[in-house]
Write a structure and sequence with these properties.
There is one protein chain. The chain is an alpha+beta fold. The protein contains 4 helices and 9 strands. It has one domain. The termini are far apart.
């Protein structure tokens, strides 16, 4: 199975990694991955693209970007929306998993802060 993601070329350079392209594809064998890895990847997968998830109060969703000159509805109608690829610090599967784990931590931290705020508001009332 192929997985496509972005690489932060500046960070790759800092690490001494030659990465001539900002978007890379790695091959993985799903049966060789842990269930946790498969779940984390599957949550972010759109075709072969591994997308960043964005936390929302209701849960999480794949991040999208659209041309700034178009409003969201117009972009959706014109099929101009594309998923935002997750960005790793290097071109390997291990780098991809680090990026996914960072993204998941950000989402978990967001949900914890929302829960703490709601608990504080409920306690104040």
């Amino acid at each position: 199975m192929k997985l496509r993601f972005k690489v932060n070329q500046g960070e790759a350079l800092r690490r001494g990694i030659d990465c001539p392209k900002s978007t890379v594809t790695v091959d993985v064998t799903p049966s060789e991955l842990t269930q946790e890895q498969r779940n984390l990847i599957a949550d972010r997968l759109d075709g072969i693209d591994v997308c960043e998830l964005t936390a929302t109060k209701e849960g999480h969703k794949k991040a999208v970007c659209w041309p700034s000159s178009l409003c969201y509805e117009a972009a959706a109608q014109l099929d101009k929306i594309r998923n935002s690829l997750i960005e790793a610090h290097g071109p390997t599967f291990e780098d991809l998993m680090e990026a996914i784990e960072r993204n998941q931590r950000d989402i978990d931290d967001y949900h914890k802060s929302v829960a703490a705020r709601e608990a504080a508001l409920a306690a104040a009332n």
